[in-house]
User: Which sequence fits this backbone?
């Protein structure tokens, strides 16, 4: 017993010393990375207040790999061609006919920003169809998949092996048997329930299928925090889909717990599909180490409409948080209104300030979030922002009819923003996302009508009522806001 006691006396101080030194190293490392101050403070508190657990949590979730570029895009022919075209468009903007519309001319700085920060080339002559909710979206997707004659490219955060997943799987297997090239990317975390037999079934059917950024110990530490949240389909280079709807039954049928799944998706035809294709093929190179740049994947198109679109991709592979910057610029330039529907509201400090500034400046700012959510901590964190929004004259609403999963912003009857990105830290800074910025009054007015319909199924939140809530609720929300940047 004396020997054991002596060993304990020696080892404990040694272990304690090692732990303290490790914590100090991590704290210094976090501070020197010049991260968002909120994130830095949150990590420091977690490390100090949760010994051992906080350290392990940091190892798995806290490392920032943006500077190392998880995907190196430069040097890929498709990406370089897109960059060159974007630079050419920047030099020609002053003489471009796209600004003949005075409404679009007012958004010239936003268009230029997206060209500069993400090579989001300006495409005109597009047709854009807004698809509301799962039934309409999957009907359009199935019809388009059935029409494929050359290739089908799919990229999804969630691909479930349920009823709708089985329908999509059967179609792409049949198409592969007909000689259509089929490529599939699913996120390894979002589609965690897909097991090896699924991928074997795909490959046996002639479908090239990969999971994105696989999370397997001991590689977990560098990858679990950067997820591919994109939802992309490209068919024959002529039809593209993107938006908020994953391939799972709940997007079609809702759920017993949350009710209907209110969501928004896009079907695009025209040159914007080429940009969407480039995003997919960049991710394809990452998962397969195969660069695809054959012209058949970028067919020449005649104009199929008159809508102007910029497809914006951002993530740990991009030099700038392009989608966040675009949203910030669109809000800052708003003159009449900014309407936002989002399932999670945890904006960056810059976007938060832009929203407050716009509302205090007389712009009609309205935000809808769900009253019930599939993410408890995220819901609490979202609610922590409501009081300061209301104090700045931002109008806030809770959607009642089901779970609001739409990611939509409409500005001034001319700019519509629809894609996979939520109004939160993770989408802005960590996830791989893709979003369409549409410059078209018809699309904006249609989406505005849908937004007003959603307002009819929402209840407004008033400052006096919100301020009188129990202290325990406010406390839980404050703590959730503190830890939310880490999740």
Assistant:
């Amino acid at each position: 017993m004396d020997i054991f006691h002596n060993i304990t006396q020696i080892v404990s101080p040694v272990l304690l010393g090692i732990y303290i030194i490790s914590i100090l190293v991590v704290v210094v490392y976090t501070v020197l990375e010049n991260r968002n101050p909120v994130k830095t403070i949150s990590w420091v508190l977690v490390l100090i207040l949760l010994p051992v657990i906080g350290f392990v949590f940091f190892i798995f979730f806290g490392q920032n790999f943006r500077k190392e570029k998880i995907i190196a895009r430069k040097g890929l022919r498709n990406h370089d061609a897109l960059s060159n075209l974007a630079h050419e468009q920047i030099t020609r903007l002053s003489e471009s006919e796209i600004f003949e519309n005075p409404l679009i001319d007012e958004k010239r700085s936003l268009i230029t920003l997206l060209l500069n920060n993400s090579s989001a080339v300006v495409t005109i002559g597009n047709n854009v169809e807004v698809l509301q909710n799962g039934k309409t979206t999957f009907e359009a997707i199935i019809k388009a998949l059935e029409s494929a004659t050359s290739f089908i490219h799919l990229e999804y955060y969630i691909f479930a092996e349920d009823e709708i997943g089985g329908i999509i799987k059967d179609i792409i297997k049949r198409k592969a048997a007909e000689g259509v090239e089929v490529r599939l990317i699913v996120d390894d975390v979002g589609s965690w329930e897909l097991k090896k037999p699924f991928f074997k079934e795909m490959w046996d059917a002639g479908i090239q299928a990969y999971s994105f950024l696989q999370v397997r110990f001991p590689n977990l530490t560098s990858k679990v925090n950067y997820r591919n949240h994109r939802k992309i389909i490209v068919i024959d280079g002529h039809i593209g889909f993107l938006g908020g709807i994953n391939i799972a039954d709940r997007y079609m049928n809702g759920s017993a717990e949350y009710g209907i799944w209110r969501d928004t998706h896009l079907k695009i035809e025209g040159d914007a599909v080429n940009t969407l294709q480039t995003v997919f093929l960049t991710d394809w190179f990452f998962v397969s180490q195969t660069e695809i740049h054959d012209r058949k994947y970028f067919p020449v198109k005649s104009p199929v409409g008159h809508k102007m679109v910029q497809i914006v991709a951002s993530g740990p592979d991009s030099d700038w948080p392009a989608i966040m910057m675009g949203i910030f610029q669109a809000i800052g330039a708003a003159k009449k209104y900014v309407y936002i529907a989002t399932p999670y509201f945890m904006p960056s400090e810059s976007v938060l300030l832009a929203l407050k500034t716009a509302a205090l400046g007389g712009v009609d700012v309205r935000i809808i979030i769900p009253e019930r959510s599939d993410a408890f901590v995220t819901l609490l964190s979202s609610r922590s922002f409501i009081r300061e929004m209301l104090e700045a004259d931002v109008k806030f609403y809770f959607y009642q009819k089901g779970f609001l999963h739409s990611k939509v912003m409409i500005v001034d009857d001319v700019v519509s923003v629809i894609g996979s990105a939520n109004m939160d830290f993770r989408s802005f800074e960590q996830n791989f996302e893709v979003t369409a910025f549409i410059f078209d009054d018809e699309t904006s007015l249609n989406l505005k009508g849908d937004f007003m319909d959603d307002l009819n199924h929402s209840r407004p939140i008033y400052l006096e009522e919100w301020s009188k809530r129990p202290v325990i609720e406010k406390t839980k929300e404050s703590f959730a806001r503190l830890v939310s940047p880490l999740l």
User: Anything to note?
Assistant: The chain has three domains: 2-61, 77-95+127-302, 322-486. The longest strand covers residues 123-132.
